[in-house]
Specification:
Length: 366
């Protein structure tokens, strides 16, 4: 049965690829804004299958990769503070800061723990009332509801030793910034299905209208992405600039209203610094004034830590889709998963990690 499913899947992939080839009259540049989708495209060889028909452009869709260096330095600083436990997702452990990473901080005695949810960190705070528990809240809109819930619960249960180090970024303002860049050569976008499951895709309709670009909300399997590409190519060939939803099994136009309500209760939109992209207007979340006591950056003196991005890593160019990972001079040489120079090489959703894992060592220039 397993082999029959695999055969059907392969047959579907071939059929969709053939349909895309028939429909396209030129090579279209399509950006995906999700590291998971980047990995699927490269792992399944869709980029090679559609060579010359669709040129995938990898966007700033890896939450770990877009977290600015100074936030990593601040997390390390917090972790090294006496009587503090820093809880984080495993992905963050090896992301290089300016001199070190959280794994090294742990080897120097810092109490850094890997958790699967901010609610695990909240439980740590309840259990260890004598310690400050800080959760490193990194991510797009997808992880915001659980982070908001943890703060709301901490407030309801009066747990004073819990806080968040917030680095939450939002997808639509980043797309807007990319489209305002005159060097942008993106014809259409694959919108991230998980983000739209939470937030809906109303905001993308506005972007499609303003910038005359089509969007397709898509899932994460090879067949999802090929279906999305077929829809995009059809819209591009017809000069239709709207939003279509391929991920109907999860995403709706308005998203998850309960989750959005929880986000609104705890967070407000603010300007946010992105790695490689600089500060983007109204592109992130911060804790509202009434929840400021749960903000680690208020609780700990961290303002003095301000770190410029390293000159030897061109993650900014990679994250904007201007450079392919394999075009970075350090790719596979000074920078490898064992000795990463930047987050995109070490994060499980990073474009550089995908190119390294699936042997894309030589790519044509964009
Ligand atoms: S290959 Fe390494 S140095 Fe180059 S952009 Fe990627 S993470 Fe940075």
């Amino acid at each position: 049965m397993k082999y029959l499913d695999e055969y059907r899947n392969q047959a579907l992939i071939q059929r969709l690829a053939e349909q895309i080839k028939k429909r396209a009259t030129r090579c279209w540049h399509v950006m995906e804004i999700c590291g998971g989708q980047t990995h699927t495209l490269i792992r399944s060889g869709i980029d090679q299958l559609l060579d010359g028909i669709v040129q995938p452009v990898h966007g700033p869709g890896c939450p770990v990769c877009v977290t600015p260096l100074e936030k990593i330095d601040r997390a390390i600083n917090v972790a090294l503070t006496p009587r503090v436990t820093l809880a984080t997702y495993g992905d963050m452990m090896r992301v290089p800061g300016s001199n070190s990473d959280l794994l090294h901080a742990r080897s120097r005695g810092a109490d850094v723990r890997i958790v699967y949810s901010p609610l695990d960190a909240l439980m740590l705070a309840e259990k260890h009332a004598d310690r400050e528990i800080v959760f490193f809240a990194v991510g797009f809109e997808t992880t915001a509801p659980a982070n908001a819930m943890s703060v709301w619960l901490a407030s309801q249960k009066d747990i004073p030793n819990f806080s968040l180090l917030v680095s939450h970024v939002l997808v639509p303002p980043a797309i807007e910034a990319l489209l305002q860049d005159e060097e942008s050569h993106i014809d259409g976008f694959i919108a991230p299905g998980h983000v739209c499951t939470v937030m809906g895709f109303e905001e993308y309709e506005e972007l499609a209208r303003r910038f005359s670009r089509p969007f397709v909300v898509a899932g994460f399997e090879p067949a999802d992405l090929l279906e999305a590409l077929l829809l995009l190519v059809a819209m591009l060939e017809e000069n239709r600039f709207t939003v279509e939803n391929q991920y109907t099994r999860c995403a709706t136009r308005m998203g998850n209203l309960h989750a959005r309500k929880m986000i609104r209760e705890v967070f407000e939109v603010t300007d946010m610094k992105w790695r490689g992209l600089g500060t983007i207007h109204r592109s992130g979340f911060r804790l509202k004034d009434e929840y400021q006591s749960f903000d680690a950056e208020v609780r700990f003196p961290l303002d003095h830590i301000s770190t410029p991005e390293p000159p030897h890593c061109c993650a900014g160019q990679v994250l904007q889709g201007k450079t392919k990972p394999s075009q970075c001079p350090a790719f596979g040489k000074e920078c490898t998963p064992e000795r990463p120079l930047g987050a995109p090489m070490v994060s499980s959703e990073g474009a550089c990690a995908a190119y390294y894992s699936f042997r894309r060592f030589q790519e044509n220039c964009l």
